[in-house]
């Protein structure tokens, strides 16, 4: 059976609505640091297994590898199985956006049809994403990035595999909150100048972490003191030298962006329809 984005969006809304009060409470409880919630069994299992099975292989994706990160991404969705585009854009349907708006109590939310830094990601053994703050704006530097939606489709994922989402609400000198990249789990987290997060290095060679990503933007920042910033990386607590290198890296890149607001190189992490 082929599912449309509208049909998938209706599954999402039904599950979110069923658990709305609990999700609102979870988000509100964490809002003063990094607001977030997660929900399991978001979609029918057979659908998520199908999404997993048609996920592109690493060789058909773009490798992003540096001291900041090591992962594969895919954003040119018409290169892949059509179901993948349907599930990505299901999260952009008005009914889903409105539902998440009510849960997070953010009235001004806009999905991103360009999938700027969104789309698909895949990570295998030893791949990682160092602690970072997401870029504050959309690709045209016109709207503020306010929510990050992460939907995991990798079956049988276990905490001890690594590759889990880490939230650092107390800063990078304290232990993070770990959210397992569990099959059929949706995580929604706030993005602002204090929302440090990362993905722990993957330790299992038999499984790949597969994630469907979306960002929501707004005409207003979540925090009154938020200001423009690039994606900013830091080292983990046990990486003091790497931390200094990443500080220098962020400083230099921010200097460039202070002159060239949209950067000097075209960002390829955008869906060109």
Q: What's the level 1 CATH class?
A: Mainly Beta
> Judging by the overall fold, what is the CATH architecture?
Sandwich
Proportion of residues in extended strands: 15-25%
Helix content: 25-40%
Query: What multimeric state do the chains show?
Result: single chain
Structural class: alpha+beta
- Number of individual domains: 1
Q: Element order, helices and strands?
A: HHEHEEHHEEEEEEEEEEH
CATH homologous superfamily identity = q2cbj1_9rhob like domain
CATH topology: Jelly Rolls
Distance from first to last alpha carbon: 25 Å
Q: Return the average pLDDT rounded to an integer.
A: 94
The number of distinct helices, counting runs of at least 4 residues, comes to: 6
Shape: globular
Low-confidence stretches: none
Largest sheet: 13 strands, antiparallel
**Integer-rounded radius of gyration:** 18 Å
Q: What is the total tally of β strands?
A: 13
For this entry, give a set of tags.
273 residues, alpha+beta, Jelly Rolls, 6 helices, 13 strands
């Amino acid at each position: 059976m082929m599912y449309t984005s509208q049909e998938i969006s209706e599954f999402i809304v039904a599950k979110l609505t069923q658990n709305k009060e609990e999700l609102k409470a979870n988000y509100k409880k964490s809002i003063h640091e990094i607001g977030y919630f997660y929900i399991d069994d978001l979609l029918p299992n057979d659908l998520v297994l199908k999404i997993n099975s048609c996920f592109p292989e690493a060789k058909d994706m773009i490798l992003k590898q540096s001291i900041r990160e090591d992962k594969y991404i895919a954003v040119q969705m018409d290169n892949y199985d059509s179901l993948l585009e349907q599930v990505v854009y299901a999260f952009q349907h008005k009914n889903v956006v409105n539902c998440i708006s009510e849960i997070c109590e953010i009235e001004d939310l806009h999905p991103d049809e360009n999938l700027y830094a969104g789309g698909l990601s895949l990570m295998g053994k030893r791949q990682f994403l160092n602690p970072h703050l997401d870029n504050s704006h959309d690709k045209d530097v016109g709207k503020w990035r306010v929510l990050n939606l992460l939907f995991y489709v990798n079956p049988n994922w276990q905490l001890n595999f690594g590759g889990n989402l880490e939230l650092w609400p107390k800063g990078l000198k304290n232990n993070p909150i770990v959210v397992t990249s569990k099959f059929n789990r949706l995580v929604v987290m706030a993005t602002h100048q204090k929302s440090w997060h990362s993905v722990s290095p993957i330790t299992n060679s038999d499984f790949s972490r597969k994630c469907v990503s979306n960002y929501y933007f707004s005409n207003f920042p979540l925090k009154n003191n938020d200001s423009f910033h690039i994606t900013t990386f830091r080292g983990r607590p046990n990486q003091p030298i790497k931390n200094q290198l990443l500080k220098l890296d962020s400083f230099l890149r921010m200097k460039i962006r202070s002159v060239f607001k949209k950067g000097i190189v075209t960002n390829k992490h955008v869906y060109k329809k």
